[in-house]
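Human: Here is a favour to ask of a fellow structure person. Comparing notes only helps if you start from a blank page. I am asking you to supply a protein in sequence and structure-token form. Write it directly below this note and I will take it from there.

Assistant:
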Amino acid sequence: MGKTENSSCFNHFGTMLDCSRNAVMNVESIKKWIDITTDLGYNTLLLYTEDTYEVKDNPYFGYMRGRYRKEELKEINAYALSKGMELITCIQTLAHMNAIIRWPAYREHVDTDDILLAGDKAVYELIDKMFATIPIRSIMIKCLLPTQRLRRIPGLLVAFGTGRDSHLIMATV
């Protein structure tokens, strides 16, 4: 019996591993996942992280939760590429940062709930460091919120006013 060639009508056909909820998969487990999913014909792996990777000068990223070192992300990416899989790191920039905002070092940069303060110079410096940390060519970034939620963020409204929804969204980019 010959080898079966897997193909898909989609350019990207993959899975997402959430490494921000309760556990950070170790490198060997991710490699095993890559092996299994590539054998099934998948060609993309999205690695969802919120604060579970190291960020220069930010020791609370992944603190007491687990985090990936830059070298580990490079190793995972190289392994995925060797198997014909694209690794896409999904990071949060302004919202869903509840794990780090519990630490005093970040409290003055919080707008509301788990949302960092748009327009705060320190927040944008942090975001620059986040991008510098991810050593993977494919990064998916989530930095926007539903517009109805945007309308309720006090700091954003003070900084950018109550204009049209599109203006509020663009103000956070």
